[in-house]
């Protein structure tokens, strides 16, 4: 029978970068059990002063862009430069059991073995935005453990990716050659959020096409205003598999963070992101209370039934219920 982990055990384990405790701490904050939520909230309050010192990097791209291979190669390169790297890999979830389908840790075996790396695959559990609903909190845990780079690999499903932009300092868009989605990328809005673009899987055979793709992307980016003043979004060619272009990406990330600090937008952006997390959790807790409060349950179920049977517009039913909620 395993010993129950105390709050102090969690705090000590996180501060000493104990990977076993890190994994259990993230499992704790992912739990929806009320007794776990109480401990998780206490834990987050205790470790918060030790967080905030990392660079948070969101990595997205269409399926097949080589996100996991890139993260493994880039993570190893960053470690060679003296960085400690944590990876929060968000997998698509099974619609049946809500568990992770792909299991990214099995696809980053070399990086997982490195003592200066920590990899945590988490199921998205149907949560939109390309991340899990506790990715931000997991990120804080990793920061408190002293990791310099937090790499967040998103699900990679197109329009629902965008929330990762709300919890990271750098948004990296991975692209492969010949998908014909340069303009489609602008339509999706992903390129509008990108701070760097890496064209992956470039080799001697497709170098000519890669350069043409880079030219097309560079032209398309002329119509997009960068999020950061005085930043020209770089398009970098390389191959994660062949370890090329990684140094360029690493240097550009460092340059971008330095520019944000110089412009005074680094901390300001993080404050805005924290405000959005506050609003997210307000909505979550209100909905949870509405579902579980015995005084509200009948009303909630009634409005839900009317909405599901289209007896009324779902938006109107929701509005009516919220009015009752705050009247009570």
Describe the protein.
With 328 residues, the protein is of the alpha/beta class. 50% of the residues lie in helices and 12% in strands. It is built from 13 helices and seven strands. The protein has helices spanning 7-15, 19-30, 34-47, 67-80, 109-113, 135-144, 182-188, 190-193, 207-221, 246-263, 266-292, 294-308, 314-327, and strands at residues 55-61, 85-91, 117-123, 149-153, 170-175, 196-199, 235-237. It has a seven-stranded parallel sheet with strand order 3-2-4-1-5-6-7, sandwiched between helices. Helix 11 packs across helix 12. The longest helix has 27 residues, at 266-292. It is globular, with a radius of gyration of 21 Å. Residues 92-104 and 124-132 have low confidence and may be disordered.
């Amino acid at each position: 029978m395993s010993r129950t982990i105390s709050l102090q055990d969690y705090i000590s384990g996180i501060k000493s970068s104990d990977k076993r405790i890190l994994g259990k701490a993230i499992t704790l904050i992912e739990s929806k059990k009320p007794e776990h939520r109480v401990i998780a909230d206490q834990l987050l309050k205790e470790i918060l002063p030790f967080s905030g010192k990392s660079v948070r990097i969101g990595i997205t791209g269409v399926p097949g862009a080589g996100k996991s291979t890139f993260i493994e190669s880039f993570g190893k390169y960053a470690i060679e430069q003296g960085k400690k790297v944590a990876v929060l890999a968000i997998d698509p979830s099974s619609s049946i059991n809500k568990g992770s389908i792909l299991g990214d840790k099995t696809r980053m075996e070399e990086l997982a073995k490195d003592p200066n790396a920590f990899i945590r695959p988490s199921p998205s559990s149907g949560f939109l935005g390309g991340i899990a609903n506790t990715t931000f909190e997991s990120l804080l845990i990793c920061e408190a453990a002293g990791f310099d780079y937090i790499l967040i690999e998103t699900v990679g499903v197109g329009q629902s990716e965008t929330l990762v932009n709300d919890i990271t300092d750098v948004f990296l868009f991975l692209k492969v050659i010949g998908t014909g989605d340069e303009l489609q990328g602008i339509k999706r809005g992903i390129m509008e959020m990108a701070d760097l673009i890496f064209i992956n899987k470039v080799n001697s055979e497709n170098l000519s096409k890669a350069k043409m793709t880079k030219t097309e992307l560079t032209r398309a980016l002329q119509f997009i205003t960068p999020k950061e003043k005085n930043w020209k979004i770089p398009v970098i060619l390389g191959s994660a598999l062949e370890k090329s272009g990684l140094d360029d990406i690493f240097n550009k990330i460092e340059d971008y963070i330095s520019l944000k600090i110089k412009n005074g937008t680094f901390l300001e952006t993080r404050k805005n992101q924290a405000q959005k997390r506050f609003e997210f959790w307000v909505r979550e807790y209100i909905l949870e209370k509405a579902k579980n409060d015995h005084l509200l349950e009948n009303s909630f179920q009634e409005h839900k039934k009317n909405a599901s049977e289209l007896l009324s517009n779902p938006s109107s039913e929701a509005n009516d219920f919220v009015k009752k909620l705050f009247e009570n």
